[in-house]
């Protein structure tokens, strides 16, 4: 694949914004690996990713949307950084729903093989997320 294809793959996947977990099958290899932000660990396999990452995220932020500030790609890798914004309506980071609008800064790096994401490295500013949820730090 080329850089333009890989940028479009990122844009199309983010545009999903659907609770239909099977819609992700088009974008991810079955044996993909998701390297979550600190505290989340690694998830192996698309079905595990959908059940352990996407399903709880959709429940926590059912109205979320993505704003990409930067998307870059070459023939093998793609990366995006921006914000996920949504109302905190389900448990996230062990915090019960607050009803607050949360703006979550993220960066994603994907290894792309045969036109699908095979590996994903994720960084999220969870410190800011917790502060927006009302958690105070001393």
| Number of helices in the DSSP assignment | 3
Spans with pLDDT under 50 lasting ≥5 residues? none
What's the total number of strands? Answer: 6
Strand content: 35-45%
CATH T-level fold name: Nuclear Transport Factor 2, Chain: A
The total number of structural domains is 1
Q: Can you characterise this structure?
A:
- The chain has 138 residues and is α+β, with helices and mostly antiparallel strands.
- It has one domain (3-132): Nuclear Transport Factor 2, Chain: A.
- The chain is built from three helices and six strands.
- The protein has a six-stranded mixed sheet with strand order 2-1-6-5-4-3.
- A hairpin with a 3-residue loop joins strand 3 (65-73) and strand 4.
- The longest helix is centred in the middle third of the chain and has 15 residues, at 46-60.
- 17% of the residues are buried.
- The mean pLDDT is 94.
Overview features:
single chain; globular; Nuclear Transport Factor 2, Chain: A; 138 residues; 3 helices; six-stranded mixed β-sheet; 6 strands
């Amino acid at each position: 694949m080329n850089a333009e294809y890989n940028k479009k793959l990122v844009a199309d996947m983010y545009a999903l914004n659907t609770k239909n977990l099977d819609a992700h099958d088009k974008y991810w290899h079955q044996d993909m690996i998701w390297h979550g932000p600190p505290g989340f660990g690694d998830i192996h396999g698309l079905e595990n990713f959908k059940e352990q990452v996407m399903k709880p995220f959709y429940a926590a932020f059912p109205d979320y949307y993505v704003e990409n500030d930067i998307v870059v790609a070459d023939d093998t890798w793609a990366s995006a950084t921006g914000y996920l914004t949504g109302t905190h309506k389900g448990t996230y980071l062990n915090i019960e729903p607050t009803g607050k609008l949360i703006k979550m800064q993220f960066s994603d790096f994907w290894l792309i093989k045969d036109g699908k994401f095979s590996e994903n490295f994720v960084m999220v500013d969870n410190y800011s997320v917790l502060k927006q949820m009302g958690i105070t730090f001393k």
